[in-house]
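Protein Entry — a single chain follows
Next Lines — sequence and tokenised fold
***
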Amino acid sequence: MANIRIKKAWKLPESAATPEDVYVNRRQFIKNLGLTSVGAWAMMSGCFNSASEAEPRMVEGDVKSTIPKPSPPLYPPERNSKYRVDRPLSTEETAASYNNFYEFTTDKGRVWQLAQSLETDPWQIEVTGEVHNARTFDLDDLLDLFPLEERVYRFRCVEAWSMVVPWAGFPLKALIDEVQPTSNAKFVRMITFNRPDQAVGQKQQSWYAWPYYEGLTMAEATNELTLLATGIYGHALPNQHGAPIRLITPWKYGYKSIKSIVKIEFVKKQPRTFWNDLAPNEYGFTSNVDPAVPHPRWSQATERVIDTGRRIPTLKYNGYADFVAQLYS
């Protein structure tokens, strides 16, 4: 078998940069780079770390140094007791030091260090598309407009690990009502930042279609569970959790809950999503937690609780069937 030669990201010439309308189709993008399916998937899985000559500087100290302090009156907000979980909270230190955030690294244990380079103040979120009141919000605008509440949710990763987290935020529906979508709006598309000067993973892992992008149906976006989170554990979000604002859809696998949102667009047609473009046979648009539907490379019947390492049965819709099952009937 012929040897597979994978180019370093920094060796790509400027002429190899692909326009957005082409590189958003990942299969075509991989083909254009001249990678075989095995080599490309190894890169996308983080098996090859195409790093620059110098290792990026990481923050000193421990993960506790990245955790903001409570800042009344915003944090901590009052907990909404409607959203209860019959499992103990994950410890904050564990949750803050075990994260997927490929914009910085594929190494979960290093995200909290590398993510500190992202500048989150000031921060703006553009809301556009099929809406009557398109506008750009400063984060402070959102915090002034929409009262925060705390909700304890289960969080289930597609990699079959889980945690229980107290998020602070407001329903996405509140923002949707504010901008008043037109009758043409059938889906919501969300996009995160593209700052390779601040996010080393975006610079070094250039084969990904940065910036990260996700989508929901309007019915999913307006469901009462769907939260725009700005805080966690009684304080503002740390960078590794997707500061300063992220999506939370607790009945879906974690990659649907896009971090560090900069744009929300209301569209007529189902939008592309990051992981579905990369591996459509493994990651669907809907991506609901379902123990009866295995990932092509592992079972989803059980999950590993990150605090204890104990394996427990996975629940349909991650235990939120009463809230969302009617969306898929």
Summary: The mean pLDDT is 87. The first strand starts at residue 124 and ends at 129. Residues 70-273+283-328 form a domain with the Sulfite Oxidase; Chain A, domain 2 fold (CATH 3.90.420.10).
